[in-house]
Amino acid sequence: MYEEFLEDIAQANRLREVNTYLKLIAGTGAILLCLLSSSYIPPLFIALVLSGAILFLAGIDAKTYGELFLVPFTFAVMSVAVIILLSGGGEVYWSWSPFPWLSLSLTSDSINKGFFVFCRVIGGMSALIFIALTTPLIDLFIVMKQCRIPEAIVDLTMIIYRSIFMVMDQLVQTYRAQLMRLGYSSLRESIQSFATLCGSVFISSWDAAEDFIRAMDARCYSGKFVVFGETRPVEAVPTILVGAFLAVSSLVVIATQGVALI
Amino acid sequence: MHIMEGFLPWQWCLVWWIIATPCLVFGVYQLKKVLEADREALPLLGVTGGFIFILSSLKLPSVTGSCSHPTGTGLSAFCFGPWVTSVICAIVLLFQSLFLAHGGLSVLGANIVSMGIVGPLVGWTIYRVLRDTRVDMYLTVFLAVAFADLFTYVVTSLELALAYPAEVGGIASSFILFLGIFAVTQVPLAIVEGIVLTLIFKYIVQLKPDILSQLQVFPKEKITSAGSVA
C-alpha cells in the first residue's frame, strides 16, 4: 500500500536516458495544447499518442498505468455529471427544477461541454502521468537549479524529497506491526492506530532530522546543497519525435476548432 | 481533495496562478527570514513537508468508501505560520502530481490557493484567536485542523463553480451544488482529520513536549499542564 511510488517506476523506465528538457517540453506542451483546444478530439489524440509512448517506448506495465487513472476517473465522472446537469443551451432532452434557484437539465450543449471537459481531463492526466513516469525528480532538481529558481526553495524541495523516504521507512515498519496486531480491525480502532502511527512517525522523523543536520554540519554544510549532475545530451531521434508530436497535435487543435460531439 | 489536470479552462488556471504567486513570494521571503534566524529550522521544515506528503498519500480509515485523505496542513500552519506553510504546500502538491498523479501542473495554482493558502490561513486564524484564551488546547487544535480542511473544500467548490457557472442561478447555484456533492465525503473527513490530528498532537505533547515549546506553539504552562495530566 505505501511502498510503491511512481518514482520507482520512473527510475527504471526506458526513456530515463532521454534529455529531461525534451520530456518536459513534450509533457507540458501536451498539457497546454489540451487546454487551448476547443474540441474533444485533440485531447483524445494526445492521450492516445502519450499512452502509446508510455506503454511501448517507456515500457510501463499496462496494469500499473490503468490503475493510475482510477482515482482521477471517479472525480472526473462526478464533476462532469454536475457540469452536464448545470449548464444548458441547445436542444433540451430533459429538465427538472427542484428549487426556484436550481434547474437541472440535459441538453445537447451541456452534453458537449461535459464530454469535452472529460476528454480534456484524460488528455491532461496522460500528459501528467507521462512526465511522472519518465522523469525522476532527481533530474528535475538539476533543471530547477539551471532555471535559477531561488536556492531556498530548491534546498527545501530536496530536503522534503529526502525526508519522504526517511519517514516512509518508519511508517511501513510501524504500520505492518499494527496490522499484525489487528490494529485496523474496526473504525474506532483504525482511528486510534492511525493517530498513534502518525504521532510516532512525526516524532521519529523529528529525531532523524536533528541527526541529519548534525551529520551535515560535520560535513561543513553552509546552508547550500551542491547539486552535481548534468542533463543528458539532446539526441536527434527524440527531438524529431517530440517536435513531430507537438506539431501534429497543434495541427489537430487548429483543424478541429469548434467540432462538437452532438 | 485536488482538482485534477485539465479540469479548469486555461483562463481560470491563469487567474489562480496570479492569486497564488504573490502569496508564495511572501512565503519564500518569510522562509528566508526563518532560516536566517535559525538554520536548524531547515531540516525541520523538510520533515514537515515530508510528513504532509505522507499524510496526504495515506488513505484514512474509509468513512464513505471514497479516496479521502487528510491534508495535514493545519498542524504545519500553527507550527510555522500560514505563509511558510503555503510554500511547503506548493512543493508537496508538485510532488503529489509527479509522484502519485494527484492534482496537476496547470491546476497547481488553484490547488495551492485552496489547500496551501486559504485552508492554513483559516486554521491559523482560529488557532491565534483561541490560543491565549481559556479554551482547551486540544479543542483549539481540533477546530483549527477541521476548519482548515473544510475551507480547503469550500474554496475548491468555489473554484469549480466559478469555472462552470449554472445556466439558471449562475455561480451561486453551481457553488451550492458542488458544495453539496462533496459534502458527502468532505464533512466526515474534516471531522476525522480533526480527531486524528488532535490525537497526534496529544501524542507529541505526552512524549516530546519540548518540540512544541521550542516552536512556541502554545504557552509553555498549557503544554506542561496538559502533558502532566495525560
Defining traits:
heterodimer, A: 262 residues, mainly alpha, two-stranded antiparallel sheet, globular, B: 230 residues, Arp2/3 complex 21 kDa subunit ARPC3
Describe the overall structure.
- The complex is a heterodimer of chains A (262) and B (230).
- Chain A has 262 residues and is mainly alpha-helical.
- Chain A folds into two domains: 6-135 and 232-255, no CATH class; 142-218, no CATH class.
- Chain A is built from nine helices and two strands, in the order ααααββααααα.
- Chain A has helices at 6-12, 20-36, 41-57, 62-86, 108-134, 137-146, 151-180, 187-218, 236-255; strands at residues 92-99, 102-107.
- In chain A, strand 1 (92-99) and strand 2 form a beta hairpin.
- The two termini of chain A are 42 Å apart.
- Chain B has 230 residues and is an all-alpha fold.
- Chain B has one domain (10-229): Arp2/3 complex 21 kDa subunit ARPC3 (Orthogonal Bundle), CATH 1.10.1760.
- Chain B has nine helices and no strands.
- Classes of the chains: A mainly alpha (262), B mainly alpha (230).
